[in-house]
Amino acid sequence: MSAQPTLHTVRLRLVPPSLSDAPEAARLASDPAVADTAVRMPYPYPQGMAKAWIAASIVGWANDRCAVWKVVRGRHGVFLGAVSLTIDSENRNAELGYWIRTDEWGRGYATEAAVAAVAFAFGVLGLHRVHASCLRRNPASARVLEKAGLCFEGCRPGHIYHRGKFEDVLEYGVVEGDRHARNP
């Protein structure tokens, strides 16, 4: 596969991360509020994890396993967070994931990035389905998924053990061409 492209939205650029982004990614991911709602974000964030995450994303793109972007705003590239697609090529689907730094929550950046990633999954990657999940206690993330065109598929009560307690997980998904899918 060729080099992973940068995606552009009205306010954002989604840029493949480079190893030079590791210090800022680690700083942002170390926020306990980010880790509290991002199921796969470890806390405390281990030293060296950002560099390993970026290196894995570069290899993952080369091997058709993932597409990861840092989400940046403005000409100066303020690092807002990340959005990703974890690709299952055999089944032509991907899991959408994202996180945004806490001082930028509530401004629509997660939605804008998620919409671009879903469009990329269907338009460029030619996938058949995109799915995602969020904690039941995170209605803001559920709204992001709905605005990105994913439909509620169900709840898995007590599905994960997260930060010392069992949590309900909401499942969302969309199939390409589904009548519920948005056309970004």
What does this structure look like?
The structure is a single chain. The protein is globular. 28% of the residues lie in helices and 34% in strands. α1 (22-29) packs across α3 and α4 crosses α5 (139-147). It has helices at 22-29, 32-37, 49-62, 109-123, 139-147; strands at 7-8, 12-15, 66-73, 78-88, 93-100, 129-135, 151-162, 165-175. It has five helices and eight strands, in the order ββαααβββαβαββ.
Strands of the biggest beta sheet: in what spatial order? 1-2-3-4-5-6-8-7
Oligomer: single chain
Distance between the termini: 24 Å
What does the main sheet amount to? Answer: 8 strands, mixed
Q: Cα-atom Rg, whole angstroms? A: 16 Å
Measured by DSSP, the beta-strand proportion falls in 25-35%
How many domains make up the 3D coordinates?
1
Mean pLDDT metric: 94
Order of helices and strands: EEHHHEEEHEHEE
Instruction: Count the E strands.
Output: 8
> What is the overall shape?
globular
- CATH topology type: Aminopeptidase
The CATH architecture category equals: 3-Layer(aba) Sandwich
Unreliable parts? none
Helical amount among residues, as a percent range? 25-40%
User: What structural category characterises the helix and strand content?
Assistant: alpha+beta
Number of separate helices? 5
CATH level-4 homologous superfamily: Gcn5-related N-acetyltransferase (GNAT)
CATH class: Alpha Beta
